[in-house]
Every structure is written in structure tokens, then in C-alpha cells.
Amino acid sequence: xxxKYRRIIEKIEEKIKEMMSxxxxxxxxxxHEIMGPNAEENGFKITKSTSxxxxxxxxxxxxxRIDGSYTQSFLIDYNFMSNxxxxxxxxxxxxxxxxxxxxxxxxxxxxxxxxxxxxxxxNCDEELRxxxxxxxxxxxxxxxxxxxxxxxxxxxxxxxxxDIVKRIYLINDKITALIGKExxxxxxxxxxxxxxxxxxxxxxxxxxxxKYGDLDYFxxxxxxxxxxxxxxxxxxxxxxxxxxxHLKNACYGVIPDEQFxxxxxxI
Length: 267
Hints:
This protein has 267 residues and is an alpha+beta fold. 54% of the residues lie in helices and 16% in strands.
């Protein structure tokens, strides 16, 4: 019954938004006219605009797909309650007011085009240079984490009954030992650590592997309050050179409070 009423409320809210939202088709054409050519030169293609919130309309989203697991984008939203335009992408969040006229709208969108040219596309390109795993590598971990973890334990003489606190300390130490090396040197080892980390989380009460039906590509462990993409956690812990911080943030809400609080995160 609650689900039924929630759906009715959602439909009413959508109808109210539809009634309040201005016709933005001309705005979208102007955005594409001004920003489209440079976006396409940098490999971005316009996608279908979606809802941006109760008082906002998305005017445009441009996207470039790097591989199956990684997509970059930038968006332009119109807040029709405050007459503001917003530009968002990697390291960029710009908000500009405009007076509602086409002339002023063109002025702001031209500013956004300049910002993307001077900073936005460079930020996206810089992001590409950071180490990352492909969808195939994420899928490999998901399909093989149990066997990989068993092999990792055998190769490193890890007792099967080692408790979670010691396991987290060990993971922290193993990541720390790899800091300073090139990604190509450590990427396979990080996958092995991620497999061990995955089974460590799954030993905790209340955790399970997240399911996406037929779209199971990532090893994501769910807890009561949060979920953790384990390969990304291990990669970022190594890349950012702060394994204790990343492990703490990732484990919070996934493992039970009693075990979380037993860990000295100053490791």
C-alpha cells in the first residue's frame, strides 16, 4: 500500500514540475550550437537530457565513453526557480545568473564554453591519465575473487581463521608496501589484495555481494548502511597513498560497528 501511495505522490510531483518547467527546447538548441562543436572535437557526444531535480531542468549532457566501465561527462542545468545556469564536470562547478533573455543566455553559455576550453576538457584528459581498471578486469575479480583470495592466503601464509582486525591491518601493510611503484608493476597484485579484501568483508555478519541481475560487472560488497566497490577501494588506497583513510571510509557502514570500532585506523 505504501508503495502505491508513493508512486501516486511521485506522479503528482512530476506533473507539478511539468507545469512549472518552462519550454527549454530553444535553450537546448543554443547550448548545442555554442558548445557542440568543441565538445565533439574533444570526443564528447550529446546524450538524452534527464530530470535534474524538482526545480531544475537538464539542458544538456555531453559524454565520452572510454571503455565499458568508464564514462566522462559534463552537464548544463537550468534552475528555473532562481534563473541560474550550472556547469558541472571534473573539478568544475560554475553557477551563473541570467536575466531570462536569449541574449543573456547566449552570454552565459559562451562563458561555459570558454571554461570547458580552458579548464574542463584538460581536467577530463588529466583524469584519463590516472590508473584505472577496465570493465573486463572488474569482471575478472567478480567471477574469481574466491579462488584468487584462496591463492593469496596460501602464497602469503595467511591463516583461514585470521580475524577481521588483523586482516585489515595486513591489507593496509600490503598496499603500503606497493606505494611508489608504477601501476603496471602492481596492478595484478592489487587485484589479488582486492580479492582477499572482498572475502574479508564477506566474512562479516550482514554483508553480501551486490546483485544487478544480468549486469554483474563489479565486485561490490553491501552492508547494512553502505556498499563498497572493493577493487576501486584498493586501487584508490594505493594511488592516493593513504590506505588507512580509504579502508576506513570504505568499511564504514559495511562491516558491523563492533568490528569497525575494534580497528585502530591510525595504522
